[in-house]
Write the structure tokens for this entry.
Amino acid sequence: MPLLLPFAELEVGKHLYWQLGNLKIHGQVFLSSWVVIGALLALVVVGTRKLERDPQGTQNLLEFLWDYIRDLSREQIGEKAYRDWMPFIGTLFLFIFVSNWGGALVPWKLIHLPSGELGAPTADINTTIALALLVSLAYFYAGLSRKGLRYFEYYVEPTPIMLPFKIVEDFTKPLSLSFRLFGNILADELVVAVLAFLVPLIVPLPAMFLGLFTSAIQALIFATLAAYYIGEAVHEEHH
Amino acid sequence: MDSITSAASVLAAGLAVGLGAIGPGIGQGTAAGGAVEGIARQPEAEGKIRGTLLLSLAFMEALTIYGLVVALVLLFANPFAG
């Protein structure tokens, strides 16, 4: 049951389907995530083309981001292992951040699709579940590669009573990660759309700013939690 | 979708968001109150307190958002629509 609002023209549950073998994929998500990936790549290529000792402009911005991501991952993962995981955390953070803001700031409405509409890739549950499962794989890999089978000791620490809870946790981690991001981004879009439907002028603006703010925080939270889970997996217990 | 299913879905969607907002609302109030107290006692720690507060507020907000996701599923992707 697609929802159609006349002014805001928000289309929930309508997609631009591409047939890929037996699979139906949401084309509009692919298009907007390619735009996001392209923008990030362009930024990085432009920023690193002429490196200078005193960073200016784009290089300065990139170095600031690098510092930020390094501090984030070092704080959560720890001094020993953070270097291996910084690229992963940084990619997650930048992709989610640029997706969220791109979905809100780029006037996607100007591009007309036959069905569905372009928007933040993270407003589609498939994107966020894929990202969350990547985080799951990453922390299992991190734990297993650093500690080998001793990684599973973590499940029975401090007592074996914790075993069922720790197993359930492995399922709830990706679930809550993906739902949190998806729900927040979709909620922002819905709130703005409903307000724009009721009062098309000015009134939606504060909600839009709040949306920008929460979507930035959500990107930070996703990256922080991913780093925290990885840090938990590589953490050495001192007996 | 028959009318009873749709009526129950709409009602349940409203309840999912409404009831789900109570707990996090109380929690966010407590957290913000604690943060204000902390800033009043130690104004120089304001930056750090603000960062932690925002992060924890977002965690609490996620609980309401779960209710919202359930409501959205009931409204737009109802598995019982038949």
Q: What stands out?
A: The mean pLDDT of chain A is 86. The CA atoms of residues 69 and 90 of chain A lie 6 Å apart. The two ends of chain A are 57 Å apart (CA to CA). Chain A is about 65% helix and 5% strand.
